[in-house]
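ESCALATION

Customer reports they have been waiting on this structure for their group meeting. Please prioritize. Original submission:
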Amino acid sequence: MSLKSLLQSIIILIIIIILGGVYYNYFANNSKITLEKNVQTKIDTNKTKKKNNLTENSIEKKRINIEEKVISEDEIVNDEIEKVESEKVDLKKKNKTK
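Update from on-call: job pushed to the front of the queue and completed.
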C-alpha cells in the first residue's frame, strides 16, 4: 500500500469517526427532547380536555340560569295575574255594593 493510499484511508476513517460521533450525540440528546415533547403534548391534551369541560360546564350553567329566569318570570306573571284578578273581584264587589 502506498503512502498516498494509507493517508487517504486514515483521512476517511477520521471523517467517519467524526460523523459517527456527531450522529451519536445528536440522537442521544434528541431522545430526551422527544420525551420532553411527548410530555408537553400530554399536558397540552389535558389542558384541551379541561377547556372543553369548562366550556361544557359554562354552557350548562347558562342553560340552567336561563331556565331559572324563565321560571322566575313565570312566577312573576302568575303573581301579577292573581293581583289583577283579585282587583277585579274587589271592583265587582264595590260595584255590587253601590
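Sent to customer with the following note: The two ends are 141 Å apart (CA to CA).
Escalation resolved.
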